[in-house]
Amino acid sequence: MGNQFRDLIIRQKEIAADWKSKGGKVMGHFCNYVPDEILHAAGILSIRILGSPDPITHADSHLQSYVCKVIRSSLDMGLKGDLDYLDGLIIPYTCDAMRLLYDLWERNLGGKFLHLLDIPCLIRGDVGHTRFHEEFISFKKALEKHIGKDISNDALSHSIRVHNENRSLLKELYNLRRKEYGVVSCSEAYEAVLSSFTSPKELHSSLLKDLIKDARAKIGTQRATTQASKVRLHVSGSLITDIKFYEMIEESGGDVISDDLCTGTRFYWDNVIEADNEPIDAISDRYFYKLPCACKHPNTDRHEFIFDSVRQGDIHGVIFVMEKYCDAHLYDQPLLHEKLDKMNIPVLVIDSELALSGQEQLRTRIETFINILKRK
Amino acid sequence: MSQKAKKRALDTSYEVAAILKNYWAEIHAAKKDGKPVAWASGNGPVELLYAFGILPAYPENYAAVLASRQMALDFCQMAESMGFSRDLCSYSKINLGDLLWKGKEKPAMPFDGLPLPPDLLVTTRIPCLVQVKWWEVLEDWYHCPLMILDAPLVDGSPTEDQIDYIVVQLKEMISKLEDFTHTKFDEQKFIEALKLSDEAAGYWDEIMDLRGSVPCPVGAREMCGNVFPLVAMLGTQVPVDFYKKMRDELRSKVEMKAAMVPDEKIRLIYDNIPIWYHLELFSYVEQFGAVFVMETYLRYVWGGRIDLRDPYRGYARKILSNVWLNMSVETRFKTLVNDIKKHKADGVVFLSNRSCRRYSIGQYELRDMLQQELGIPSLVIEADHSDPSGYSESQTKLRMDSFIELIKRRK
């Protein structure tokens, strides 16, 4: 089953080409504050760019090496032509480096549709709410101007349902894995999440339904029982793109059952609640109130999410995967660490630059951590 | 680094030490009297705090003080040993290391240290998101109210929408400060503070312009020491008097054609925060007949004029548009081009500052744009503004030597 999601990741460009051959546009972006629903309603396939672990060959003359790998490698991909298949790009104001990436992109790779989603840092309270909402409206308008037609409320409502379904299924998978240990391995489940970033949601949701159905059939079987004895972990950080990390945890006798990653729960936890308001308002509210990024203030809901997850009592330890030079997460981490210590939750901190460096050494650290937890 | 400081170019510069001492003494006295003391970020709405009678202390500025006294390393390492990444802003590492200090004996702190605990935390995204994250850590530790002024980065002039966003936040902050102080906002006091702020900034701008004279009357090293009242005390009388006096002195120096370096040959611009633990770098070049005539940090980070005809919008406009770090790369370029011409500069020294990404990203573009469009050469040196670990003084000087050679050959 997992192979189907891996296949979606491998065939990402092929899928995008297929989409384009049917007359659709494909646009990239960098962050889950970019509203996929609006892109979808405009007939655009949304691609979340996750950077690349490859060595930088073109971007070093534009950007210092002390900028995070996501930004450096994404600019590098752009300069090398790896993103030429995109019809446009949306860059949100999340962190400072991301905002300045917009300027570098405009200067070096301008020409196509390029939109700065200038969202505020404040994600609670009226002041931030108004500005956030205005930015979503401007984004919709810019997109309408670009495609030469209005995005109707019906189209937005439809897109809301498509994305809500996808997010609900990912959340269902999360809840199922948390209740029925081992019915889906953590690497399989993580590939399911990662593949959603670049796939047509309708296709992705149908595969997710199959995965969940098969998983339900495994409840109570031999496989599930052996998996249940594994050490269960919460993973915290910004983004993880290297599936080897999950495989390493599995091979060491661990299982990731919870996370607060931007490439994880923060992507799918919250749905759009469409009531009597305009669909665009409902979409904007979802992104404003969603499980926040460390770049936004306040992001205490993310902290509480971690503590609540740990308080459920089924987690043995927390692994922080800290992306180098990601200031926002690096300031939060010691605070979270200290509180987890007080809760008697063992913590392992590892550094990442998209790829996990020193794999064998890292494997040893993960194995040791898991072995310690096993003995507890 | 131990080379004794030369006699200062301006008599007024000698007054800054007393201003600094009084400022900290007043804050400690206020704290002792039970008055609320705020910890404020650089570029925060300090005029508003003064209007409410709240004295602001600047952890960032205090970190620069420690760095300039060669005291930063221990504090940075203390913060790192407590789990804060080496790659974080060194100002924040110094502050957090100071607050987390344990184990070995703490060195004697200049000005008796920061007033503890803060009663109020005021920060802004104007210079960077890091300020907000750093202040969140402080909020977590001290559990006192945190007020944030959010801002978009500005390309060209701020739009009306962007100004609205600042104004509405200022008004909200005013009502929060009324609650905090249990006093009614006195708008007249605020406007008075804005007037003083604008007046001081006006003199400062004149001072910066006078430095553009040929020969340049005063260099960067001395001016780095003189910027403090502008950083911390905008909205009070002190910087107005100080900078007026300095402006007057500079005017007469310029009339007399007084020169920072005899036989001035090369005029340089500096970009980024000064290397506080090696300010000598600024005067090092003087032996070659070179002088720093303008610094983006001194000209476009502090101060800023305010259009008082519409005080809130005028203030919002200044907050948004005066700060180099809050400018788009394109705006930084245009501003730099203008200043190169205005100050008759021969080259630009960029400090690529590993712990200030917001300031440093875009510098490679600026370097290339200046070369292509003006034929102006640039040098990029690498260092951290306050954490001296890994800094090579000799390497930096060598690079500066060859840059000066290059400019000389071109002239």
What's this, in brief?
The complex is a heterodimer of chains A (376) and B (411). Chain A is of the alpha/beta class. In chain A, 54% of the residues lie in helices and 12% in strands.
Mean pLDDT of chain B: 96
- How much beta of chain A, percentage-wise? 5-15%
- Helical segment tally of chain B? 18
The main pleated sheet of chain A reads as: 4 strands, parallel
Termini distance of chain A?
Answer: 34 Å
Residue runs with pLDDT of under 50 for 5 or more positions of chain A? none
Structural class of chain A: alpha/beta
Cα Rg of chain B: 21 Å
| Strand runs of chain A, count | 8
CATH topology of the domain at 12-168 in chain B: Rossmann fold
Q: Largest beta sheet of chain B, briefly?
A: 4 strands, parallel
Biggest sheet strand order of chain A reads: 2-1-3-4
Give the CATH class of the domain at 12-168 in chain B: Alpha Beta
Largest interface: A-B, 46 and 41 residues
Compute the number of helices of chain A. 16
Question: In CATH terms, what is the architecture of the domain at 12-168 in chain B?
Answer: 3-Layer(aba) Sandwich
Strand content of chain B: 5-15%
Taking strands numbered 1, 2, ... along the chain, how are they ordered across the largest sheet of chain B? 2-1-3-4
Descriptive report:
The complex is a heterodimer of chains A (376) and B (411). Chain A has 376 residues and is of the alpha/beta class. Chain A has a domain at 7-153: Rossmann fold (3-Layer(aba) Sandwich), CATH 3.40.50.11890. In chain A, 54% of the residues lie in helices and 12% in strands. Chain A has helices spanning 2-10, 12-21, 36-41, 69-80, 96-109, 126-147, 153-179, 186-196, 201-217, 222-228, 244-251, 265-268, 279-289, 300-311, 327-342, 359-375, and strands at 25-29, 44-48, 88-92, 113-117, 231-237, 254-259, 317-323, 347-352. In chain A, the strands form 2 sheets. Chain A has a 4-stranded parallel sheet with strand order 2-1-3-4, with helices on both faces. In chain A, helix 6 crosses helix 13. Chain A is globular, with a radius of gyration of 20 Å. The mean pLDDT of chain A is 95. Chain B is of the alpha/beta class and 411 residues long. Chain B has a domain at 12-168: Rossmann fold. Helices cover 52% and strands 10% of the residues of chain B. Chain B contains 18 helices and 8 strands. Chain B has helices at residues 16-32, 46-51, 59-68, 72-81, 90-100, 129-142, 160-181, 187-210, 220-226, 228-232, 237-255, 280-284, 296-299, 311-321, 329-342, 357-360, 363-374, 393-410; strands at residues 37-40, 55-57, 120-124, 146-149, 266-271, 290-295, 347-353, 378-383. In chain B, the strands form 2 sheets. Chain B has a 4-stranded parallel sheet with strand order 2-1-3-4, with helices on both faces. In chain B, helix 4 (72-81) crosses helix 5 (90-100), helix 7 (160-181) packs across helix 14 and helix 15 crosses helix 17 (363-374). The mean pLDDT of chain B is 96. At the A-B interface, helix 5, helix 6 and helix 15 of A face helix 6, helix 7, helix 16 and helix 17 of B.
